[in-house]
């Protein structure tokens, strides 16, 4: 919350600015460099937390490198293929440092250890896929940050309930970083997160799932990250199918056929479309907790989301009082 205005000024200085256009929802030049503010908040919180945390360093390193890829794209507008190759390289790096999906659970009991090659393929595909899914859903003020905030709250509750202190702390740090940025990013936003913010949030959220839910030996628990990140995952899957059906390259330029664009096309107000996506994310997260019979966690999630909503209302981002007439 404190650092974002500084990076807004830097964005205008370095040319990381979204100009109004056919695919843009902004009507004036808007800075798009919220990623560094969120990353420094995330990293600072974890450094202050201290303790023995072998996976914390790899996650911070991976999120920083993902941030750098997005930051370069915000400033220089990189092509899709080099960005994808760089993302895969970062995913390979954190895999080599221990952030990996190591097994799948057996519904009948026990676990199936994954061969190294399959663990590598699943981990890299998950990290790169979620990173790009969050980037694609970042089309409206506060949309991506709010979705990742709710998903991170879910990851925190599950990790804390299972005694995964390291994963719980990282999830809580991401909750704080995204919530602080929402002060400036929720409609009507004063800044966009840009690819730097979307890549940071997407990669970090994906890594949290790998260090948390994917390490719990319960079959249904694997559904939690998939449900919590269901909106961007569905939107990306639908975009791939749509482009294949239209015989367009999967990595073609951005379009206005994403879920949030369709809400706007049907007459939804900008803020209402974002809140609807929040509610869908909240519902999917709550359902995933109910599936594993964690009723108390579902209640905690409800209270946490309500607290964030009250914070936004309190700072005048959701409900604004009309100024009295002179």
Task: Offer a quick outline of the entry.
The protein is mainly alpha-helical and 326 residues long. It has 13 helices and four strands.
Mean pLDDT comes to: 83
Q: How many beta-strand segments?
A: 4
Strand order of the largest sheet: 1-2
Note the run of SSEs as H and E. Answer: HEEHHHEEHHHHHHHHH
**Alpha-carbon distance between the termini?**
33 Å
Explained architecture:
The protein is mainly alpha-helical. The protein has one domain. It is 66% helix and 3% strand. It has 13 helices and 4 strands. It has a two-stranded antiparallel sheet with strand order 1-2. A two-stranded antiparallel sheet has the order 3-4. Helix 2 (35-49) packs parallel to helix 8 (194-211) and helix 3 runs antiparallel to helix 4 (80-96). The longest helix is centred in the middle third of the chain and has 22 residues, at 116-137.
């Amino acid at each position: 919350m404190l650092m974002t205005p500084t990076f807004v000024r830097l964005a205008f200085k370095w040319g990381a600015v979204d100009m109004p256009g056919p695919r843009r929802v902004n009507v004036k030049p808007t800075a798009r460099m919220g990623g560094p503010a969120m990353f420094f908040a995330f990293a600072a919180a974890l450094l202050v937390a201290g303790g023995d945390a072998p996976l914390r360093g790899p996650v911070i390193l991976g999120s920083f490198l993902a941030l750098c890829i997005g930051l370069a794209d915000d400033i220089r507008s990189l092509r899709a293929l080099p960005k994808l190759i760089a993302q895969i390289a970062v995913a390979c790096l954190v895999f080599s440092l221990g952030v990996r999906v190591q097994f799948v659970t057996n519904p009948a009991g026990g676990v199936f250890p994954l061969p190294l090659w399959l663990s590598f393929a699943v981990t890299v595909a998950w990290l790169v896929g979620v990173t790009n899914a969050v980037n694609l859903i970042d089309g409206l003020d506060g949309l991506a940050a709010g979705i990742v905030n709710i998903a991170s709250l879910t990851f925190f509750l599950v990790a804390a309930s299972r005694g995964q202190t390291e994963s719980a702390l990282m999830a809580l740090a991401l909750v704080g970083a995204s919530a602080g940025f929402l002060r400036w990013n929720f409609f009507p936003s004063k800044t966009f997160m840009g690819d730097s913010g979307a890549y940071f949030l997407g990669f970090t959220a994906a890594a949290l799932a790998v260090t948390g839910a994917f390490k719990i030996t319960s079959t249904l628990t694997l559904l939690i990250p998939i449900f919590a990140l269901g909106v961007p995952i569905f939107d990306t899957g639908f975009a791939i199918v749509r482009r294949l059906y239209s015989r367009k390259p999967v990595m073609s330029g951005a379009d206005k056929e994403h879920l949030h664009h369709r809400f706007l096309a049907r007459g939804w107000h900008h803020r209402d479309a974002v809140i609807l996506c929040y509610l869908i994310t909240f519902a999917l997260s709550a359902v995933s907790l109910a599936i594993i019979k964690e009723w108390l966690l579902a209640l905690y999630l409800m209270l946490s989301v309500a607290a964030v909503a009250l914070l936004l209302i309190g700072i005048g981002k959701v409900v604004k009082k009309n100024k009295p007439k002179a």
